[in-house]
Amino acid sequence: EPEVTQTPSHQVTQMGQEVILRCVPISNHLYFYWYRQILGQKVEFLVSFYNNEISEKSEIFDDQFSVERPDGSNFTLKIRSTKLEDSAMYFCASSRDMMNTEAFFGQGTRLTVV
Amino acid sequence: GESVGLHLPTLSVQEGDNSIINCAYSNSASDYFIWYKQESGKGPQFIIDIRSNMDKRQGQRVTVLLNKTVKHLSLQIAATQPGDSAVYFCAENHPGNTGKLIFGQGTTLQVKP
Question: Which of A63, A69, A94, B99 meets the CB 3.0–4.6 Å disulfide criterion with A98?
Fold first, then answer.
């Protein structure tokens, strides 16, 4: 069964450092997403991406965040200068269509900012 | 504002009993809803979905009910098993043509042997 894969599973970084979270979406999917989940809280939307551009972003997704699809298989989330409050699980997801089809989620990257 | 909420944070059931997890949504324009299961340390896993032109959909041991009049969604799990223990989230497809999902707070289902 195809799946979304994320690396690394756990990232520890110093406050102010840049991190890149990596994702390989399901191969025939065209829509890609990043979500985050602070420990014990609900999953929050960050950004959606289609046709090599951002289609929607939340207020959380400020200038510190960026996304990129550098090649035909990877989808990355970059946080330029991490803050303590960026500590969370980050989930990548992909879907075949943007409406009325389920999004498949990866296992997540646990980001710890110290 | 947009929100998808759950009525109870924790539900404890006996193995073999049926479980009902509830969710309320606020956006009457939403037309697609998904239930996800999240086990500890893992990503959300798709369980079942329903479109707004339906009021009931059944899967294997799971049923989702949609009441658009009161903007309420429920997930019923038949013959609950220990492996069903997890956090369950309802999610609403944001009616903005970007695929954005709005998640509820989550209900923790505990299955007692």
Answer: B99
